[in-house]
Amino acid sequence: MQEELLRSDQQNSKSCFPIKQERQMQQQTEQEDQTKDLFKMIDQGMVYYKNGQYTFAKVVLFRSSSTLLSQIKQNKISEQVKPMALEKLQDGVRLAEYCNKQITQKQQQIAQKDPYCQQIIETSMIRKIDISFEEIIGLEHIKNQLEETIILPNLRPDIYTGIRAPPKGILFYGPPGNGKTLLAKAVANQIKCCFFNISASTLVQKHIGEGEKLMKALFDVAFQLQPSVIFIDEIDSILSKRSQNEHEASRRLKTEFLISFDGIQSSDQDRVFLIAATNRPQDIDDAVLRRFTVKILIDQPEYKARVEMVKSLMSKVKNNLTDQQLQQIAEKLKGYSASDIKAVVKEACMTPLRADRSIIFSIHSQDIKAVSKDDFDLAIEKVKPTLSQQQYEEYVKNFK
Ligand SMILES: Nc1ncnc2c1ncn2[C@@H]1O[C@H](COP(=O)(O)OP(=O)(O)OP(=O)(O)O)[C@@H](O)[C@H]1O
Ligand SMILES: [Mg+2]
Fold first, then answer.
1. Which residues form the AAA+ ATPase domain (predicted)?
2. Which of 129, 203, 240, 394 is least buried, going by the fewest C-beta atoms within 10 A?
3. C-alpha distances out from residue 37 to 67, 75, 193, 325, 389, Å
Protein backbone atom coordinates (compact mmCIF):
# COMPACT_ATOMS: atom_id res chain seq x y z
CA MET A 1 0.00 0.00 0.00
CA GLN A 2 2.70 2.40 1.03
CA GLU A 3 4.66 1.53 -2.05
CA GLU A 4 1.65 2.22 -4.20
CA LEU A 5 1.16 5.55 -2.56
CA LEU A 6 4.78 6.35 -3.04
CA ARG A 7 4.62 5.34 -6.70
CA SER A 8 1.52 7.37 -7.37
CA ASP A 9 3.09 10.29 -5.54
CA GLN A 10 6.14 9.97 -7.75
CA GLN A 11 3.95 9.73 -10.84
CA ASN A 12 1.99 12.77 -9.74
CA SER A 13 5.07 14.72 -9.16
CA LYS A 14 6.33 13.60 -12.57
CA SER A 15 3.32 14.82 -14.46
CA CYS A 16 2.56 17.93 -12.46
CA PHE A 17 6.00 19.15 -11.53
CA PRO A 18 8.58 18.54 -14.24
CA ILE A 19 10.76 21.20 -12.68
CA LYS A 20 10.65 19.47 -9.33
CA GLN A 21 11.56 16.19 -10.98
CA GLU A 22 14.46 17.81 -12.78
CA ARG A 23 15.69 19.21 -9.52
CA GLN A 24 15.42 15.79 -7.89
CA MET A 25 17.43 14.24 -10.72
CA GLN A 26 20.05 16.92 -10.39
CA GLN A 27 20.27 16.32 -6.64
CA GLN A 28 20.61 12.59 -7.27
CA THR A 29 23.46 13.14 -9.73
CA GLU A 30 25.21 15.43 -7.25
CA GLN A 31 24.76 12.82 -4.56
CA GLU A 32 26.21 10.10 -6.79
CA ASP A 33 29.21 12.31 -7.58
CA GLN A 34 29.77 12.86 -3.88
CA THR A 35 29.66 9.12 -3.24
CA LYS A 36 32.13 8.52 -6.07
CA ASP A 37 34.47 11.10 -4.50
CA LEU A 38 34.23 9.27 -1.19
CA PHE A 39 35.13 6.00 -2.91
CA LYS A 40 38.13 7.74 -4.45
CA MET A 41 39.17 9.05 -1.04
CA ILE A 42 39.00 5.55 0.43
CA ASP A 43 41.13 4.28 -2.47
CA GLN A 44 43.58 7.09 -1.80
CA GLY A 45 43.68 6.06 1.87
CA MET A 46 44.54 2.53 0.76
CA VAL A 47 47.43 3.85 -1.32
CA TYR A 48 48.80 5.69 1.74
CA TYR A 49 48.34 2.53 3.75
CA LYS A 50 50.25 0.45 1.21
CA ASN A 51 53.07 3.03 1.26
CA GLY A 52 53.29 2.72 5.05
CA GLN A 53 52.01 6.28 5.58
CA TYR A 54 49.71 5.17 8.36
CA THR A 55 48.75 8.52 9.83
CA PHE A 56 47.88 9.96 6.41
CA ALA A 57 45.92 6.80 5.68
CA LYS A 58 44.09 6.95 8.99
CA VAL A 59 43.09 10.60 8.53
CA VAL A 60 41.77 10.06 5.01
CA LEU A 61 40.07 6.73 5.76
CA PHE A 62 38.51 7.95 8.95
CA ARG A 63 37.07 11.04 7.30
CA SER A 64 35.79 9.33 4.15
CA SER A 65 34.35 6.31 5.98
CA SER A 66 32.45 8.39 8.51
CA THR A 67 30.95 10.56 5.75
CA LEU A 68 30.03 7.45 3.78
CA LEU A 69 28.42 5.90 6.86
CA SER A 70 26.25 8.94 7.42
CA GLN A 71 25.21 8.89 3.74
CA ILE A 72 24.19 5.25 4.05
CA LYS A 73 22.32 5.94 7.30
CA GLN A 74 20.42 8.82 5.71
CA ASN A 75 19.49 6.63 2.74
CA LYS A 76 21.24 8.97 0.36
CA ILE A 77 22.79 6.12 -1.61
CA SER A 78 20.86 4.34 -4.35
CA GLU A 79 20.11 0.63 -4.04
CA GLN A 80 22.45 -0.25 -6.94
CA VAL A 81 25.43 1.48 -5.36
CA LYS A 82 24.69 0.40 -1.78
CA PRO A 83 26.47 -3.02 -1.82
CA MET A 84 29.61 -1.39 -3.19
CA ALA A 85 29.32 1.40 -0.59
CA LEU A 86 29.02 -1.12 2.24
CA GLU A 87 32.04 -3.00 0.98
CA LYS A 88 34.11 0.18 0.73
CA LEU A 89 32.97 1.23 4.18
CA GLN A 90 34.02 -2.10 5.67
CA ASP A 91 37.44 -1.89 4.00
CA GLY A 92 37.87 1.72 5.10
CA VAL A 93 37.02 1.07 8.75
CA ARG A 94 39.11 -2.10 8.92
CA LEU A 95 42.17 -0.39 7.48
CA ALA A 96 41.70 2.71 9.65
CA GLU A 97 41.72 0.47 12.73
CA TYR A 98 44.81 -1.31 11.49
CA CYS A 99 46.52 2.04 10.91
CA ASN A 100 45.65 3.06 14.46
CA LYS A 101 47.44 -0.01 15.78
CA GLN A 102 50.48 0.73 13.63
CA ILE A 103 50.58 4.32 14.84
CA THR A 104 50.42 3.27 18.49
CA GLN A 105 53.26 0.84 17.87
CA LYS A 106 55.29 3.56 16.21
CA GLN A 107 54.70 5.89 19.15
CA GLN A 108 55.94 3.21 21.53
CA GLN A 109 59.06 2.68 19.42
CA ILE A 110 59.82 6.40 19.34
CA ALA A 111 59.25 6.70 23.10
CA GLN A 112 61.57 3.79 23.84
CA LYS A 113 64.41 5.34 21.87
CA ASP A 114 64.56 8.71 23.57
CA PRO A 115 63.40 9.90 27.03
CA TYR A 116 62.63 13.42 25.77
CA CYS A 117 60.46 12.05 22.99
CA GLN A 118 58.79 9.85 25.58
CA GLN A 119 58.05 12.88 27.73
CA ILE A 120 56.53 14.71 24.75
CA ILE A 121 54.35 11.73 23.82
CA GLU A 122 53.21 11.26 27.40
CA THR A 123 52.59 14.85 28.37
CA SER A 124 51.84 16.86 25.26
CA MET A 125 50.13 14.54 22.84
CA ILE A 126 46.40 15.08 23.04
CA ARG A 127 44.38 12.05 22.07
CA LYS A 128 40.84 13.33 22.33
CA ILE A 129 39.50 16.77 21.53
CA ASP A 130 35.79 17.43 21.69
CA ILE A 131 35.64 20.96 20.29
CA SER A 132 34.00 21.32 16.90
CA PHE A 133 33.76 24.27 14.52
CA GLU A 134 30.00 24.46 15.12
CA GLU A 135 30.57 25.36 18.76
CA ILE A 136 32.59 28.39 17.76
CA ILE A 137 30.20 31.21 17.11
CA GLY A 138 30.96 33.86 14.50
CA LEU A 139 34.45 33.98 12.94
CA GLU A 140 32.98 32.47 9.77
CA HIS A 141 35.57 33.87 7.37
CA ILE A 142 38.34 32.61 9.63
CA LYS A 143 36.85 29.13 9.74
CA ASN A 144 36.69 29.19 5.93
CA GLN A 145 40.27 30.34 5.68
CA LEU A 146 41.38 27.57 8.04
CA GLU A 147 39.47 25.01 6.06
CA GLU A 148 41.37 26.04 2.95
CA THR A 149 44.79 26.53 4.50
CA ILE A 150 45.03 23.60 6.82
CA ILE A 151 42.08 21.21 6.90
CA LEU A 152 41.67 20.34 3.22
CA PRO A 153 45.43 20.06 2.57
CA ASN A 154 45.50 17.44 5.29
CA LEU A 155 42.69 15.47 3.79
CA ARG A 156 44.04 15.62 0.24
CA PRO A 157 47.79 16.00 0.65
CA ASP A 158 48.28 14.72 -2.91
CA ILE A 159 46.53 17.78 -4.36
CA TYR A 160 47.93 20.46 -2.10
CA THR A 161 51.61 20.25 -3.05
CA GLY A 162 54.07 22.57 -4.79
CA ILE A 163 52.66 26.05 -5.16
CA ARG A 164 49.44 24.85 -3.54
CA ALA A 165 51.26 23.58 -0.46
CA PRO A 166 49.81 24.96 2.75
CA PRO A 167 51.71 27.36 5.01
CA LYS A 168 53.59 25.75 7.89
CA GLY A 169 52.90 28.28 10.57
CA ILE A 170 49.74 30.09 11.59
CA LEU A 171 49.58 32.61 14.38
CA PHE A 172 46.31 33.52 16.05
CA TYR A 173 46.54 36.82 17.82
CA GLY A 174 44.05 39.16 19.37
CA PRO A 175 42.50 40.37 22.59
CA PRO A 176 41.95 37.77 25.31
CA GLY A 177 38.93 35.50 25.46
CA ASN A 178 37.76 35.48 21.85
CA GLY A 179 38.40 31.91 20.82
CA LYS A 180 42.07 31.57 19.80
CA THR A 181 42.63 28.46 21.88
CA LEU A 182 39.20 27.16 20.94
CA LEU A 183 39.89 27.55 17.21
CA ALA A 184 43.25 25.80 17.37
CA LYS A 185 41.67 22.83 19.14
CA ALA A 186 38.77 22.70 16.67
CA VAL A 187 41.24 22.63 13.77
CA ALA A 188 43.08 19.71 15.32
CA ASN A 189 39.79 17.94 15.90
CA GLN A 190 38.76 18.43 12.26
CA ILE A 191 41.91 16.90 10.83
CA LYS A 192 42.07 14.06 13.34
CA CYS A 193 45.83 14.07 13.13
CA CYS A 194 48.42 13.96 15.89
CA PHE A 195 48.02 17.01 18.03
CA PHE A 196 50.68 18.30 20.39
CA ASN A 197 49.67 20.94 22.88
CA ILE A 198 52.76 22.49 24.35
CA SER A 199 52.92 25.11 27.05
CA ALA A 200 55.49 27.12 28.93
CA SER A 201 55.28 24.76 31.90
CA THR A 202 56.45 21.83 29.74
CA LEU A 203 59.33 23.67 28.12
CA VAL A 204 60.65 25.74 30.97
CA GLN A 205 62.66 23.16 32.86
CA LYS A 206 64.68 23.13 36.03
CA HIS A 207 67.89 22.00 34.38
CA ILE A 208 69.68 24.03 31.74
CA GLY A 209 69.55 22.44 28.32
CA GLU A 210 66.45 20.34 29.00
CA GLY A 211 64.00 22.84 27.53
CA GLU A 212 65.77 22.93 24.19
CA LYS A 213 66.03 19.15 24.11
CA LEU A 214 62.30 18.92 24.67
CA MET A 215 61.71 21.46 21.93
CA LYS A 216 63.82 19.40 19.54
CA ALA A 217 62.05 16.21 20.60
CA LEU A 218 58.69 17.88 20.02
CA PHE A 219 59.46 18.64 16.38
CA ASP A 220 61.11 15.22 15.91
CA VAL A 221 58.07 13.34 17.19
CA ALA A 222 55.67 15.54 15.21
CA PHE A 223 57.74 14.90 12.09
CA GLN A 224 57.79 11.15 12.58
CA LEU A 225 54.08 10.95 13.28
CA GLN A 226 52.94 13.38 10.59
CA PRO A 227 50.48 14.70 9.62
CA SER A 228 50.60 16.52 12.89
CA VAL A 229 49.82 19.86 14.44
CA ILE A 230 51.92 21.46 17.12
CA PHE A 231 49.98 24.00 19.10
CA ILE A 232 51.89 26.48 21.23
CA ASP A 233 49.46 28.47 23.34
CA GLU A 234 50.59 31.78 24.88
CA ILE A 235 53.68 31.65 22.67
CA ASP A 236 54.83 35.07 23.95
CA SER A 237 55.60 33.51 27.34
CA ILE A 238 57.99 30.97 25.77
CA LEU A 239 59.48 32.87 22.86
CA SER A 240 59.55 36.45 24.04
CA LYS A 241 61.72 39.24 22.61
CA ARG A 242 65.42 38.74 23.26
CA SER A 243 66.92 41.00 25.90
CA GLN A 244 70.37 41.60 27.37
CA ASN A 245 69.67 40.12 30.78
CA GLU A 246 67.90 37.13 29.32
CA HIS A 247 68.55 33.73 30.81
CA GLU A 248 70.88 31.47 28.82
CA ALA A 249 68.30 28.64 28.81
CA SER A 250 65.63 30.83 27.27
CA ARG A 251 68.00 32.00 24.51
CA ARG A 252 68.89 28.44 23.64
CA LEU A 253 65.24 27.44 23.63
CA LYS A 254 64.52 30.15 21.07
CA THR A 255 67.44 29.14 18.89
CA GLU A 256 66.30 25.52 18.92
CA PHE A 257 62.78 26.60 18.03
CA LEU A 258 64.02 28.63 15.04
CA ILE A 259 66.16 25.76 13.76
CA SER A 260 63.37 23.20 14.16
CA PHE A 261 60.75 25.46 12.63
CA ASP A 262 62.99 26.12 9.63
CA GLY A 263 63.36 22.35 9.36
CA ILE A 264 59.64 21.80 8.90
CA GLN A 265 59.38 24.75 6.50
CA SER A 266 61.94 23.32 4.12
CA SER A 267 59.78 20.64 2.47
CA ASP A 268 56.32 21.02 1.02
CA GLN A 269 55.75 17.26 1.15
CA ASP A 270 55.85 17.06 4.92
CA ARG A 271 52.76 17.80 6.91
CA VAL A 272 53.81 19.33 10.20
CA PHE A 273 51.90 22.46 11.08
CA LEU A 274 52.52 24.90 13.80
CA ILE A 275 49.67 26.86 15.27
CA ALA A 276 50.48 29.42 17.90
CA ALA A 277 48.26 31.74 19.86
CA THR A 278 48.98 34.89 21.77
CA ASN A 279 47.22 37.92 23.13
CA ARG A 280 50.54 39.80 23.27
CA PRO A 281 52.09 39.55 19.78
CA GLN A 282 54.14 42.65 20.47
CA ASP A 283 56.14 40.63 23.03
CA ILE A 284 57.11 37.83 20.64
CA ASP A 285 60.65 37.62 19.36
CA ASP A 286 60.87 39.25 15.89
CA ALA A 287 62.60 36.29 14.25
CA VAL A 288 59.90 33.98 15.57
CA LEU A 289 57.11 36.31 14.43
CA ARG A 290 58.60 36.58 10.92
CA ARG A 291 58.40 32.84 10.45
CA PHE A 292 54.65 32.76 10.76
CA THR A 293 53.58 33.40 7.21
CA VAL A 294 49.90 33.54 8.14
CA LYS A 295 48.81 35.76 11.01
CA ILE A 296 45.13 35.89 11.81
CA LEU A 297 43.50 38.42 14.08
CA ILE A 298 40.81 36.91 16.26
CA ASP A 299 38.95 39.99 17.29
CA GLN A 300 36.04 40.70 19.61
CA PRO A 301 32.72 39.40 18.28
CA GLU A 302 30.78 41.69 15.98
CA TYR A 303 27.11 42.54 16.45
CA LYS A 304 25.76 39.52 14.54
CA ALA A 305 28.03 37.10 16.38
CA ARG A 306 27.02 38.68 19.70
CA VAL A 307 23.32 38.10 18.94
CA GLU A 308 24.06 34.54 17.96
CA MET A 309 26.20 33.95 21.02
CA VAL A 310 23.52 35.11 23.48
CA LYS A 311 20.88 33.17 21.56
CA SER A 312 22.93 30.00 21.56
CA LEU A 313 23.86 30.25 25.24
CA MET A 314 20.20 30.87 26.15
CA SER A 315 18.82 28.10 23.93
CA LYS A 316 18.50 25.62 26.77
CA VAL A 317 17.44 28.08 29.48
CA LYS A 318 13.84 29.15 30.05
CA ASN A 319 13.56 32.78 29.03
CA ASN A 320 11.10 35.30 27.69
CA LEU A 321 13.44 37.32 25.51
CA THR A 322 12.00 38.60 22.26
CA ASP A 323 14.15 38.93 19.15
CA GLN A 324 14.15 42.67 19.57
CA GLN A 325 15.35 42.38 23.18
CA LEU A 326 18.08 39.99 22.10
CA GLN A 327 19.26 42.58 19.61
CA GLN A 328 19.22 45.30 22.28
CA ILE A 329 21.32 43.10 24.57
CA ALA A 330 23.80 42.42 21.76
CA GLU A 331 24.02 46.16 21.12
CA LYS A 332 24.88 46.77 24.77
CA LEU A 333 27.54 44.06 24.70
CA LYS A 334 29.71 45.97 22.24
CA GLY A 335 33.30 45.84 23.45
CA TYR A 336 32.79 42.61 25.38
CA SER A 337 34.92 39.60 24.51
CA ALA A 338 33.30 36.22 23.80
CA SER A 339 34.20 34.96 27.25
CA ASP A 340 32.88 38.22 28.82
CA ILE A 341 29.58 37.61 27.01
CA LYS A 342 29.48 34.12 28.43
CA ALA A 343 30.03 35.60 31.89
CA VAL A 344 27.16 38.10 31.35
CA VAL A 345 24.77 35.37 30.23
CA LYS A 346 25.76 33.22 33.20
CA GLU A 347 25.16 36.11 35.57
CA ALA A 348 21.76 36.86 34.00
CA CYS A 349 20.76 33.21 34.32
CA MET A 350 21.71 33.17 37.99
CA THR A 351 19.41 36.08 38.90
CA PRO A 352 16.11 34.13 38.93
CA LEU A 353 17.73 31.58 41.25
CA ARG A 354 18.79 34.26 43.68
CA ALA A 355 15.31 35.69 44.24
CA ASP A 356 14.46 33.28 47.03
CA ARG A 357 17.09 30.78 48.07
CA SER A 358 14.86 29.09 50.63
CA ILE A 359 12.77 27.48 47.90
CA ILE A 360 15.70 26.10 45.88
CA PHE A 361 15.35 22.59 47.30
CA SER A 362 11.60 22.38 46.96
CA ILE A 363 11.02 24.13 43.63
CA HIS A 364 10.37 22.14 40.48
CA SER A 365 12.93 22.97 37.78
CA GLN A 366 10.17 23.96 35.32
CA ASP A 367 8.81 26.50 37.81
CA ILE A 368 11.98 28.58 37.93
CA LYS A 369 11.26 32.11 36.70
CA ALA A 370 12.16 32.74 33.07
CA VAL A 371 15.27 34.84 32.47
CA SER A 372 14.23 38.31 31.35
CA LYS A 373 15.68 41.39 29.72
CA ASP A 374 15.88 43.02 33.19
CA ASP A 375 18.13 40.19 34.37
CA PHE A 376 20.41 40.94 31.44
CA ASP A 377 20.44 44.67 32.17
CA LEU A 378 21.51 43.92 35.74
CA ALA A 379 24.16 41.45 34.58
CA ILE A 380 25.61 43.93 32.08
CA GLU A 381 25.85 46.51 34.89
CA LYS A 382 27.69 43.99 37.03
CA VAL A 383 30.02 42.27 34.55
CA LYS A 384 32.36 44.70 32.87
CA PRO A 385 34.37 43.90 29.72
CA THR A 386 37.94 42.65 30.23
CA LEU A 387 39.28 45.52 28.15
CA SER A 388 37.86 49.04 28.36
CA GLN A 389 37.27 50.84 25.06
CA GLN A 390 40.51 52.77 25.57
CA GLN A 391 42.53 49.67 26.45
CA TYR A 392 41.11 47.90 23.42
CA GLU A 393 41.99 50.75 21.06
CA GLU A 394 45.52 50.91 22.44
CA TYR A 395 45.78 47.17 22.16
CA VAL A 396 44.72 47.10 18.51
CA LYS A 397 47.01 50.03 17.72
CA ASN A 398 49.97 47.97 18.95
CA PHE A 399 49.43 45.40 16.22
CA LYS A 400 49.48 47.78 13.34
N1 LIG B 1 33.81 32.37 19.15
C2 LIG B 1 33.41 31.80 20.30
N3 LIG B 1 32.29 31.06 20.34
C4 LIG B 1 31.87 30.51 21.48
N5 LIG B 1 32.51 30.61 22.65
C6 LIG B 1 33.63 31.32 22.69
C7 LIG B 1 34.15 31.95 21.51
N8 LIG B 1 35.29 32.58 21.84
C9 LIG B 1 35.49 32.35 23.13
N10 LIG B 1 34.50 31.61 23.66
C11 LIG B 1 34.36 31.23 25.07
O12 LIG B 1 35.37 31.89 25.80
C13 LIG B 1 36.26 30.97 26.40
C14 LIG B 1 37.69 31.45 26.21
O15 LIG B 1 38.06 31.26 24.86
P16 LIG B 1 39.57 30.97 24.44
O17 LIG B 1 40.29 30.29 25.56
O18 LIG B 1 39.58 30.29 23.14
O19 LIG B 1 40.10 32.45 24.31
P20 LIG B 1 41.54 32.95 23.86
O21 LIG B 1 41.32 33.85 22.71
O22 LIG B 1 42.44 31.80 23.70
O23 LIG B 1 41.94 33.83 25.13
P24 LIG B 1 43.40 34.13 25.74
O25 LIG B 1 44.04 35.14 24.84
O26 LIG B 1 43.10 34.68 27.09
O27 LIG B 1 44.13 32.83 25.77
C28 LIG B 1 35.99 29.63 25.73
O29 LIG B 1 36.17 28.56 26.59
C30 LIG B 1 34.57 29.75 25.29
O31 LIG B 1 33.73 29.36 26.34
MG1 LIG C 1 44.06 31.12 24.78
1. 166-302
2. 394
3. 11, 17, 21, 46, 50
**How crowded is the C-beta side of 272, counted as CA atoms within 13 Å?**
20
Q: Are residues 72 and 211 in the same domain?
A: no
Of 56-65, 86-95, 338-347, 354-363, the range with the lowest mean pLDDT is 354-363
Centre of ligand 2 to C-alpha 147, Å, is: 20
Per DSSP bridges, beta strands 194-198 and 169-173 are unpaired
Evaluate whether 256 touches 215 at the Cβ level (below 8 Å): yes
* Residue range of the domain that includes 61: 20-102
Average pLDDT over residues 157-175: 85
Task: Residue 50: give its domain's CATH number.
Answer: 1.20.58
Give, as one character, the DSSP assignment of residue 178: S
Mean pLDDT across the chain: 83
Model confidence pLDDT, tens digit, residues 320-343: 889 999 999 999 999 999 999 999
> Ligand 2 centre from 200 Cα, in Å?
13
Q: Are 200 and 238 in contact (CB under 8 A)?
A: yes
Give the pLDDT of residue 3: 43
DSSP string across 254-272: HHHHHHHHHHHHS-SS--E
Strands, DSSP E only, in the chain?
A: 125-126, 169-173, 194-198, 228-232, 272-278, 294-297
Domain boundary among 75, 102, 129: 102
Ligand 1 atom closest to the CA of 312, numbered from 1: 4
Are both 177 and 291 inside the same structural domain?
yes
The secondary structure of 228-246 as a DSSP string is: EEEEETTHHHHSBPP-TT-
Model pLDDT, residue 14: 46
- Is residue 243 within 8 A of residue 283, CB to CB? The reply is no
Question: Which residues form the pocket of ligand 1, taking CB atoms under 6 Å from any ligand atom?
Answer: 136-139, 176-182, 277, 279, 298, 338-339, 342
Integer Cα distance of 397 and 282 in angstroms: 11
Least reliable range by pLDDT among 259-263, 356-360, 381-385: 356-360
Q: Give me the pLDDT at residue 205, please.
A: 65
